[in-house]
Amino acid sequence: MAETAENGGVAEVIAFAKANHLANLIAIDNTASAHFIEKYTALVENGFDLVSSNKVANTVDFEFYTQLRKTLAENQKRYLYETNVGAGLPLIDTIRLLHLSGENITRIKGVFSGSLSYLFNAFSEENRPFSEVLLEAIDRGYTEPDPREDLSGNDVGRKLLILARELDLHNEFNDVQIENLIPEKLASGDVDNFINRLGELDTTFEKFKKEQDENHVLRYVGELYGDLTHEKGGKLEVKLVSVPKNSALGQVKGSDSIFEIYTESYGENPLVIQGAGAGAAVTARGVFGDILRLAERE
Questions:
Q1: Distance from first CA to last CA of the chain, Å, rounded?
Q2: What residue ranges do the domains of the chain occupy?
Q3: Hey, is 235 helix, strand or coil?
Q4: Distances from the Cα of 83 to the Cαs of 8, 15, 147, 295, in angstroms?
Q5: Strand pairing partners for 232?
Q6: What CATH number was assigned to the domain covering residues 92-277?
Q7: What is the three-class DSSP state of 288?
Q8: What is the pLDDT of residues 109-121, one digit of tens each?
Q9: Is 159 considered catalytic here?
Q10: Residue 112 carries which DSSP code?
Q11: pLDDT beyond 50 at 1
Q12: Which of 44, 130, 230, 238 would disulfide-bridge 205, Cβ 3.0–4.6 Å?
């Protein structure tokens, strides 16, 4: 779709809609393209609402982010992207409603990545080398084709940034402090070379595992905290941590995601949203849910 758009496809779609007097138009972006988001403004200005599982438009520079929302407001159009974080889980909408109602959200913490959730759940509970568990995750299709995309933490960082911006924070991606799990010596080279050298990860991660307190497990988490009432007061961190096995984060199973939302009203008892946070089926259901919400409005 992104390639078609670059070749004039969006202009043709807009022209067709105008020529046939079509109404209640929705443009759906299920790509991961940084180029296709450049077509969003033209679509909105020509009567399209937007539904997107593509995270790029919400994580590029803040100027684009704010200009898009200005264009949406001027044209009385909506942009729904519930699947950007948590796939089909009702996370973004919950955070948005809490914020708009005047609730002071003080912290958001969670396991944002379904692939890394599976990886560290299995590694923490089973007596197997990290490389073996990672290879299993690759074979099951839980990771990106190049698993370094997951292990770098950039995807979790983008999701955390999206939530920060929902709270009207003016952060950029380079504000996110990310613990990259890939050793420098394995960061370059092709995918096959990386997979052939997975065993070089085992010593480091076994050390992490053994240094934990008793009844603790490893989790790769994203955390937003600080003065979230100030546009630049938030701290965004992505890191590998050890948590008690009986805690909310510690009890996550399989490839589930979990998000803890702390507010002034909830105090130290967070609102918890948990479930399948990745996968084609749940993402498709989330996209369809956004389409239905727009259809109901019309």
A1: 26
A2: 2-80, 92-277
A3: strand
A4: 27, 29, 21, 17
A5: none
A6: 3.30.360.10
A7: helix
A8: 999 999 999 999 9
A9: yes
A10: -
A11: no
A12: 130
